[in-house]
Amino acid sequence: MSEATEERAIVPSKGIGKYFTGHIREYGMLLALVVIMIFFQIVTDGTLLRPVNITNLFLQNSYIIIMALGMLLVIVAGHIDLSVGSVVGFVGALAAVMMVHWGWPIYAVIPACIVCGMMIGAAQGYWIAYWSIPSFIVTLAGMLVFRGLSLWLLEGQSVGPFPREFQALSTGFVPDYLPFLGEAIAAITGDRRVNGFAVAVGVLLAGLIVWSGWRARAQNRAFGVEDEPTSFFVLRNVAVAAAIVFIAYKLSTFRGLPNVLITMGVLAVIYAFVTERTTVGRRIYAIGGNRKAAKLSGIKTERLTFLTFVNMGALAALAGLVFAARLNTATPKAGFAFELDVIAAVFIGGASMSGGVGKIVGAVVGAFIMGVMNNGMSIMGIGIDYQQVIKGLVLLAAVIFDVYNKQKQG
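Now predict its structure.
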């Protein structure tokens, strides 16, 4: 090995405390989620992590997480979308009218609603990207327009119920394709029944995360990139793998993996890959970091901004379908104030108000923080008035934390 290669292979190392302090934005919210879950697990006498409640957590927060993936891209690009809650309600109403009143089949309703969401995003994104009208104004108008259209479409009444196949979007579960494994695990643990496929998926996912982490670490060391301390790396991967297997096992003792959990997982992986590994993702971050510099460097800022809103519209439509499927009815008030929970989840997850900063994992963690707080406070019997106050204070604390870190680093 040459002398230059040896120098490149030398990777500076930091202590765990110093490394954590330098990456507080990345790991701080994850630690906060763990602390919040432990707190509510204690004060609810173990109710929070019961299998049925974990399943409810995923079902109750699925549409928020789906929209948070798209909202992260919008906020990273330096914009905001206040219309997503109204789009959820409108698309749910449209799906209900198509199925119940018009008799459309499920395989036609779902793609038609997704395309409708994309068209809504395109209509708003056009004015924002190509006419430079502030996104706050355009999407505020969209929020009012689509709320009114929902009322008009439903004629002020609820429409439902829906076919069982449509309900499966949200309330369905993946069958147990490995019953022999479930029987073997049940015999060891003494549980009445265990979904072997759910456990197998959890173990496989944990293994893939550990493997990808080791692979990324080896690449960083090969190129002399500063990496996290070995002890911190091992501790983090063991904790994440153990948490995944634990959740998978808990779900396996109830009804297995919810369909919507698979949908969320696949979308999160796709969007994480796009934002971290593709040129398009890097360009969206560049737009949010410095729009003028990005444009001068050859990035088509208008087109990318337009596409982020088209993407947001598609995800809002999907969330509307999932929400309607869960309620088994479309109501005029569906999606009310959802935009606030989605935006809060993204900011709590570490996204910056000024754009250019944020991660998919952070948005998902932020959504779960909001979800666990809602669920935990509901179990404790805390009124909705106090819940709103607490969530508002948590959001404010997250933004103050972001500003403080920026000033400290600057």
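Residues 167 and 327 are 8 Å apart (CA to CA).
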